[in-house]
Amino acid sequence: YTIAGNPVGIELLPIKLGSPTVPMPGYDVQILGDEGHPVADGELGAIAIKLPLPPGTLPTLWNAEERFKKSYLNTFPGYYETKLVGLHNIPRKGAVILAANHLSHVDPILVIAAARRTTHYLAKDGHFKNGALRTVMRATGQIETKRDEGGEGALSSAADVLSEGQALGIFPEGTRSKRTEAPFLLPGKTGIARLAASYPEAVIVPIALIGTRDMMKPQDHKFPRLWRRIGLSAGEGITWMQWLEHENGGNMTTAQLTAMAAQEDHEIRSSLANLYRKFTDQIMASISTLGAP
């Protein structure tokens, strides 16, 4: 029983790429605070669906009735908890960089689903060698990157996505974290800052993925364990220009930027490297604050 869709039997509405069209009757979706009460407009909260749900909708987990209740019904009595927070922070159009932590193969899938728009990821060429997997990767808009071309080739592919005003998903850590003990979050690579600076109007949205390694741990699980509890929290986005001017960001005035532009090339590179590092560290701090383990 779909929560949103195109009511073809009544009237075929215009189809917009990445949009499910309109809400369907039968669901009462609420944004709840920590105490389980609806929050005011503009405030952060958890997305939940008021019970009862439509017939046949999300009835249970196979052979795990109590786990289903504990994972989805106990946090907010009278509601089904979705574990998705801050989706309104993800722009529905325009160039955007979705920056998330990386623990599992299911991470891109979760981000793409939450974005509600076509989102491109850069994927290593090894994922395109298997015929069936290659078909899925290309059907979902994933971009093949060649290992022998190095980081510059990947950044070039990413630039193509942003220049067309599309959504780009990246993992600032540069790789999947293999740490066995918390904190799992790795230091960020400055590639995200270089992309942000190259497209200063693109919105960078920090995203924390929670529980995805438990759902599908690389080398241990061949298939995702769909009964495992996962969550996603998207923070407020910011552009490079907004960050550059903000007192808690780059804290750069127009005069300072003009003076930097007049420096020698090696001095400019050094100044930019410092800004890239600070921007990246603050994005990673935001991902951690949002709940990334």
What report would you give on this structure?
This protein has a 9-stranded mixed beta sheet, sandwiched between helices. The model has no long low-confidence stretch (mean pLDDT 84). Helix content is 31%, strand content 17%. Helix 3 (131-139) links the parallel strand 7 and strand 8 (143-145). It is globular, with a radius of gyration of 21 Å. The protein has 293 residues and is α/β, with parallel strands linked by helices. It has helices at 65-73, 107-115, 131-139, 150-163, 191-198, 212-215, 240-245, 254-261, 265-289, and strands spanning 4-5, 22-23, 29-32, 46-50, 79-85, 96-100, 119-124, 143-145, 167-170, 203-210, 231-234. Helix 5 packs across helix 9 (265-289).
Looking at this protein, list some descriptive labels.
two-stranded antiparallel sheet, 9 helices, 11 strands
SSE diagram, text form:
Blueprint: E1 4-5, E2 22-23, E3 29-32, E4 46-50, H1 65-73, E5 79-85, E6 96-100, H2 107-115, E7 119-124, H3 131-139, E8 143-145, H4 150-163, E9 167-170, H5 191-198, E10 203-210, H6 212-215, E11 231-234, H7 240-245, H8 254-261, H9 265-289
Parallel strand pairs: 5-11, 6-9, 6-10, 7-8, 7-9
Antiparallel strand pairs: 1-2, 3-4, 4-5, 10-11
Helix pairs in contact: 5-9
Short note summarizing the structure:
With 293 residues, the chain is α/β, with parallel strands linked by helices. It has 9 helices and 11 strands.
Number of strands: 11
Helix-strand category = alpha/beta
Sheet-strand content, in percent, reads: 15-25%
The gyration radius over C-alpha positions equals 21 Å
- Inertia-based shape: globular
Order of helices and strands: EEEEHEEHEHEHEHEHEHHH
**Poorly predicted regions:** none
Helical amount? 25-40%
Q: Report, as a whole number of angstroms, the end-to-end distance.
A: 33 Å
Number of helices: 9
Widest sheet, order of strands: 3-4-5-11-10-6-9-7-8
Q: What is the mean predicted local confidence, pLDDT? A: 84
